[in-house]
Design a protein that fits this description.
Distance between the termini: 20 Å
Radius of gyration: 23 Å
Helix content: under 10%
Shape: globular
Number of domains: 2
Structural class: mainly beta
Largest sheet: 17 strands, mixed
Strand content: over 45%
Length: 560
């Protein structure tokens, strides 16, 4: 990815001030519904669309062409495969883990993948999946299950797989039990049992059908136009459309995805792709780390470390990557070879991993936790949260934006990215969730300028409190072309203005943003990295968002 924007940004939190009004909340919200996806509630079939509420005791069901992705209120994520049914037998979460929470599911047929949330992290007995032939418990994890019956699962060789329950674990541990005994399975483990009286067998690799590719989502997600109210549309009616708004160029903006993210009020969705680009999968397509063509571009963003954030774009020579193109190390030097910044994931770990296909470019993102970063001054920072995104196929153009030879204007759609991170919160204030959405990103290549309208949402909780307080930071303003090389510095940069709603400090905020563009055509994708700092306070945060180019608004947008 190449050009960057830097935006000083973010928040500080006297959240003592914005009282929170408790409202009966649903169990979760639909992030993506494609093909046939319904909830059976009180004997009625309710068509699910982006933003639909999911309630306790709902039976979630997909058809043969259906995909369903749901975020529950405890921040867990569930992705149902086609021709599947999952019942929310019991679900309760009031924003705290005090023993009253529970999440008991029943897999009726088919399969799902999930990243578990707060429920079960402190009380393991609060989470359970009844899969008919076995019961699944967790140790804080990400896993996939498939219940195969009457030849419903087809293996990679095209032959029906033996009936039974299959599972694979990509993070944490799960405990599986039936009448024949049980077993504990960790990262990389896969297993199979034929039935309640059949012992669990460990598999060398997960079967192909545990992956749930979302190939149909390019056309299906783009065709959806519902508000996600959860109204019964089984009679064939069209779900109502959300209110339309217009950008500063007078173009209509479909804000369904924005509404869905705002309604869930949780972290950035690793499932989410823009409605006009390929949606990203919850996990890698094979349920574990996938092998991709080598990354040839990446970007990193950290909160201010010793007063300065690290916002940098690099090429393959600046970074180290694993088989899934996740960044594991980086080093930047100036023209004379003097160290600017160096980092390694070391003994740390990855969180908030996601992936999206943007045209011909596959982008992977995530967060380092527990890494080690060395600055030019020789200072070393440990455990500083670092956001990253890496991609293959972005090295088609190596000139800066001023030298791309592009004429015209391009609008971009938000495709995803890791949740924003914040440090320096007041004592007793905890960040419990964050999300990011770009409402508008437009680049005018003719004049070397860009316009950004981005929203950052944070949810806080005071120690011992049962309610949360929200803060919304909106970054709005222009970026200018730097004319720098795409690989090692952002093509655009600026300091958009920051406005705050909700729990806001009194001193205002400053932003620093860098943006890099790249891809085979030179403008296919745009990566925006930035920092927001509270004026006069210690609070500062970082964000990183990926965007895909829409149809150019000028017919003469050409790479000369």
């Amino acid at each position: 990815m190449r050009r960057r924007l830097i935006v000083p940004f973010l928040l500080i939190v006297p959240l003592l001030l914005a009282p929170f009004v408790a409202v009966a909340a649903p169990a979760g919200r639909v992030l993506l519904a494609a093909g046939e996806a319904v909830a059976i509630r009180d004997g009625r079939a309710l068509r699910l669309v982006v933003g639909s509420a999911v309630e306790p005791r709902d039976l979630l069901r997909t058809g043969r062409d259906g995909h369903l992705q749901v975020r529950l209120s405890d921040e867990s994520l569930i992705a149902l495969k086609p021709d599947s049914a999952l019942s929310l037998e019991r679900y309760r979460f009031d924003g705290r883990t005090d023993g009253t929470e529970n999440a008991f599911f029943r897999l009726v047929r088919g399969g799902f993948r999930t990243v578990t949330g707060l429920i079960g992290r402190t009380n393991r007995d609060a989470y359970r999946v009844n899969a008919g032939v076995a019961t699944i418990g967790i140790r804080g994890t990400a896993y996939a299950l498939a219940l195969c019956d009457a030849g419903s699962c087809v293996d990679a060789n095209g032959k029906p797989a033996p009936d039974g329950l299959y599972g694979t674990v990509t993070d944490g541990q799960i405990a599986a039990n039936n009448r024949a005994g049980g077993g504990t399975f960790g990262i990389g483990d896969s297993f199979f049992t034929r039935g309640q009286d059949s012992p669990f067998q460990r598999l060398l690799a997960p079967p192909a059908f545990l992956a749930a590719r979302l190939d149909g989502l390019r056309r299906t997600a783009a065709a959806q136009n519902g508000s996600g109210s959860g109204d019964d549309t089984s009679s064939g009616g069209t779900p109502p459309r959300t209110g339309e708004r217009r950008d500063r160029n007078g173009n209509d903006i479909d804000d369904r995805l924005e509404r869905a993210l705002a309604a869930s009020a949780t972290g950035t969705d690793p499932l989410a792709g823009s409605l006009t680009t390929a949606a990203s999968n919850l996990l890698n397509d094979d349920g574990r780390t996938g092998l991709l063509p080598p990354a040839d571009g990446f970007v990193i963003a950290t909160p201010a470390i010793n007063g300065s954030p690290i916002l940098r774009f690099g090429d393959r020579g600046n970074g180290l990557f694993d088989g899934g193109n996740r960044l594991t190390g980086f080093e930047f030097t100036d023209f004379y070879g003097t160290l600017l910044a160096r980092g390694t994931i070391g003994g740390g770990n990855f969180t908030d991993i996601g992936r999206a296909a943007i045209g011909d470019v596959v982008v992977t993102w995530g967060r380092w936790d527990g890494g080690v970063i060395q600055l030019a001054s020789g200072q070393i920072a440990q455990n500083a949260p670092l956001l990253f995104a890496s991609a293959n196929g972005v090295a088609g153009n190596t000139a800066g934006s001023a030298n791309l030879g592009l004429v015209g204007t391009v609008q971009y759609a938000f495709a995803g990215g890791p949740a924003p991170v914040a440090v320096g919160l007041p004592v007793g204030v905890n960040l419990v969730g964050s999300s990011m959405l770009t409402k508008e990103l437009t680049i005018d290549f003719t004049h070397g300028s860009a316009f950004l309208d981005m929203e950052l949402r944070f949810r806080y909780q005071l120690a011992g409190a049962s309610t949360t307080t929200a803060q919304v930071l909106t970054l709005t303003g222009s970026l200018s072309s730097t004319g720098a090389g795409i690989q090692n510095s952002g093509d655009f940069s600026g300091s958009p203005g920051v406005s705050c709603a909700g729990a806001c400090g009194t001193g205002g905020y400053t932003s620093t943003v860098q943006m890099g563009v790249g891809g085979p055509k030179g403008y296919d994708i745009a990566a925006v990295a930035g920092n927001v700092t509270a004026n006069g306070g210690t609070f500062n945060a970082s964000f990183l968002g990926l965007h895909g180019a829409q149809a150019p608004t000028s017919a003469n947008l050409l790479a000369q």
